[in-house]
Each structure stands twice: as structure tokens, then as C-alpha cells.
Design a protein that fits this description.
Among the domains are: 27-127, Serine Threonine Protein Phosphatase 5, Tetratricopeptide repeat (Alpha Horseshoe); 129-198, Tetratricopeptide repeat domain (Serine Threonine Protein Phosphatase 5, Tetratricopeptide repeat); 299-381, Tetratricopeptide repeat domain (Serine Threonine Protein Phosphatase 5, Tetratricopeptide repeat, Alpha Horseshoe). The protein is 80% helix and 0% strand. By secondary structure, the chain is mainly alpha-helical. It has 21 helices and no strands.
Amino acid sequence: MSDDFKSQHFQDENLSEESELTKEHAEISELSKKGYILLKENRINESESNFMKILTLDPENNYALVGLGDAARKRGVYREAADFYKKCLIYHPGNNYALFGLADCYKALNQYQKAIEIWEQYLLHDNRNITVLTRIADAYRKVRDFRKSKAVYLRVLEMDTDNPYALIGLGHLHYDFKEYKEALHFWQRMVDVQGETVDIRVLTSIGNCYRKLKQFDSGIPYFEKSLEKEPGNFYALFGLADCYRGMGDAINSLKYWNHILKKDPKNKVILTRAGDAFRAMERYDEALEYYERALNIEFDVYAVLGMANISRHQGKMEAAIESLLRLVQNDGKNYRLYLELAQCYLALGEKRKAEEVLHEFTKLGIRNPHIIDLLTKIQNQ
């Protein structure tokens, strides 16, 4: 065989191999493109089928592995999704899409520390990615690392002054740590920026801050605005009912408790609150009916406490005391039980017993202003 013939033979062989590779690359590219379109259309099984075909041609293909991870994540199978992303990172370390997907899987599995570690790897390639930064800040918030969470949120605001995710996150961060005035500052900024389009959750969060600060009249407009946006919203109805309760307006409070009960008639907590409203209006029979409805669902200490309070007002002291003593045995740190018990003894003229009950609570090492006030009042009589 001549050298020219050999040379021509090898050239033809190489061209044939190149042609096959080009054909394979084109097929992989087409399958990948189609797979992601199907995934976007939520045709998950079909998209997975495309990505699996790619792996038969190229077992280490990053698009297919990430695609299968994304598909599993859409199905909510986070551990399976994480395995695909990890496999991709073995073959393609630093792949941004695999890192992002894996971190989101850890977040969904409540493994926040692992999520933070992965997102920080991502930032090595793209340290100004606002989406990733807000996710890191959220994760630090979930593990209650106030300092780091706040620092990352503020870093986002330096890049994007009114970033909604950072503002909402800072609001939740301060709220979680009972810094309600600071939480208000960030959520109010959201209202200033977005006006009428602001999310209802921001409005109810502002209302809840005012509720926690016991500035009930300031909270009411935000809950009312929430109801305008979404009539029947549970959090808005609850917030309004609780604000009116805090203001001593039992009639309006009851109105909103009953709105909730129309949709959720077996809500034990709301039944008890409605019972309290009837009790405040001295409509004792109706109050007792609501307390009993709550107790028929499940034992509720506040329903029994409300019934004991009614017994005291009706002069049935022995029944009230007996009921309260049983409650104290099961819930020994609840100051309301001691207050009610002391009031029963005072109504019977047994001042010393009332003092003893209140002193029992102080021995628990809990300082409570209501207990101290009643003790002082008794001692000064």
C-alpha cells in the first residue's frame, strides 16, 4: 500500500469520525434544547426522557445532569435532585447551575448551613449575584444568625437600593428578634416604593408589628387595606379581631372572630377568642356555648379559664377555684391562672390566700407586672 493511499485512507477515517461526532453533538444539542422547553412547560416526564437519552450518548453531560436535577426539584423530590447536581459537580466542578440547584435543594430540606456553603461557592464565580446574596441572607436568618443575615441583606441594598427581597427579609429578621420598630421601618419602605401594588403579606406584617407594639389603632388600617385586596384573608381578619380585642372593643372583635368561624367553624383558638368577646359583653350563656364548642374539639386552657372567670362573676367561687387549681397543676407557669385564682380568693374575702397564690407564682422566678401589681394592691389595702 503506497504512502499516498495510506494518507488518504486515514484522512477519510478522521473525516468520518468528525462527521459522527458533529452529528452526535447536534443530536445532544437538540435533545437538550427540547428537554428544557418541555421542563418550562411543566411536561416533566417528557423532559426527563430527553435528558436520559443524552446520558446514553454522553454520561457526563452537564446539561442533562442539571436538567434532571431541575426536573426532580420541580417534582419536589429534593434528595434525588441533589444527587444529579452532585454528579454534575464531580465532572464539572464550579458549574453555576448545579451549585444553584443544589443549594436550593438543601434549603428546601431545611439544611440551611449546607445551602449557605454551596451558595458561597457560587459567589466565588459571581460575587454580585443579588438572587444568591438574598438567599444566603434568608438562610442565615433561618439559622438565627442575626449579624451575618443583616450584613448580607444590607450588601444587597448597597447594590439595589429598594430591592424588595432584601427589604422584606430585613423586616422578617428584625420581627423574628422582636425588634418591631426596626421591622416596621423596612416594611414601610416597601409600601413607599410599591404603593398600591404592595403585596398583602407586607400589609399584614406591618399590622402585626403595630399589634405587637400594642399600638392597635395604628394596625387596623393595614389589616383593613389587606381585606380590600383579599376579602376573607385569615391573617387580616385575625389581626383586626385581635386589634379590637386589644382596644377593649368586644363587639367589633367578635364580628371578625365570627367571620373566621364561618369558614373554619372548628378552629379551637378562634372559638375561645369569640367566647372571650361574649364574656367581655357579659353575654355569659353565649360565651359558655363557644367555650364548650372549643373543648369538644380539644382541651383548651383558655376556654376553661374563661369558664372559671364566668363562674367567679356569677358567684360560683368553689367551682371556679376547683377548676383553676386543676389548671395550675398542668400549666404551672401561666400567670393568668394565678391572677384569676387570687381574684376568687379576694371575692371570698380571703386576702391571705390570694397573697399566697401570687407568691407561689413569684417563687417560679418569673417577673410578671400583672402579678406584682395585684400583690402591691392587696398589700396596700
